[in-house]
Amino acid sequence: MDKKKIMICDDDQGILDVLQMLLEIEGFEVLPQINSIHIINEILMQSPDLLLLDLWMPILPGDEILKIIRDNPEIKKLPVLVISASGDGNKIAMEAGADRFLAKPFDLNEIIAEVNNLLSN
Fold first, then answer.
1. Side-chain-side CA neighbours of residue 113 (13 Å)
2. Helix, strand, or coil here: 29?
3. If you average pLDDT over residues 27-35, what whole number do you get?
4. What is the average pLDDT score of the chain?
5. In the chain, what are the domain boundaries?
6. Which has the higher per-residue pLDDT, 8 or 86?
7. May I ask the CATH class of domain 1-50?
8. Which of 46, 48, 96, 105 has its CA 20 to 30 A from that of 75?
9. Which residues get modified to 4-aspartylphosphate (predicted)?
């Protein structure tokens, strides 16, 4: 069985490292991206099964990335789990087209549950 591919886009290297380690232990192939500028091209090239996306990033924020994804016929069905420390992050994420939202700091078991839930749909 092919490993499911999960792309993570976050400008915090520490969070990328933790999530990558956690998801690899769970048996996923992880594609970390610290630079939001290249994320759309990476999604088109790598075809991940799921995207974990931070809202607040320099240059191209997560809600803008999400709008681009939802407007692109090739990738608009990609499940997106938004993670953010923002107080109104849930509202922003849902308005931009997120499938699910998790607040930072997040519980690692919660991340795994959400990932498995989104991938089983």
1. 7
2. strand
3. 96
4. 95
5. 1-50
6. 8
7. alpha beta
8. 105
9. 54
